[in-house]
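Input.
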Amino acid sequence: MVSKILISQPRPTVMEKSPFYALSSTYGVEIEYKPLIRTVGVSLKEFRSQRVEVLDHTAVIFTSRTTVDSFFKVCEDARITIPETMKYICNTEAVALYLQKYIVYRKRKISFADGTFTNLLEQIIKHKNERFMLALSEPHKPELPETLTKLGINYDPVILARTVAADMSEVKPSAYDVMALYSPSDVKSVMENFKVDELPVVATFGTATLRAALDCGMKVKASAPSPEAPSMAKAIDIYLAKMERGEQIDDVEVKNDEAKEEFIRTQQNKLQKKNRSRAAAEKK
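Output.
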């Protein structure tokens, strides 16, 4: 039976609002929150070494609040005044609202997706004539920059933050029955501190995290997002329910997201047709 679960996220401010709070009540398990990584912004020197000029761009793509903080810190240190015409594309509404810390929130300047990769691409394509700065953390998933290149989007990637391992001296894997990992960096941090045979069952969030965990030989028994488990909490809920029923639980395997691949191909074809039509019209 499962009695203790490690969630590699910061402890919620209001525990009762956490999706894991219901799990602890339903199954009588103890939930412990412990970030396994921390993210730090790059210095002005590191930013300048990438030779990317902020004011050469008309829009910025943000996928995290950390890169938002680092972007405006770098601009402040470099005495760069961001024009009011600058547009911002964010992967979630939470990141978009966080921009209010630095700018006046206006709908004409800020667009945001629903947290899915395909919806973020849709928001970017709506503004395809902009020159984008893609704010990234290191390490990062190559999926977004690779797809933007496929689609012929005019963008420059720039590393604005780096992920480093947190202090794990007090973490003892044997004390847990499940470790919930949210990023490939979580996986890397765990492997830098422990042997794979010391680890309990692992739950992962995101395909990249799942791949990283499997490549390291971790025993993954729960994974999100998926149609039946859109969140980590739901994935663990399903796992715990199966455990209570005494069901055999197979190891999770990586599955290709055919819907996402088809979406990318469709968007690529649409943009190519528009570009051909525009080129033909200019020749007339």
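The two ends are 73 Å apart (CA to CA).
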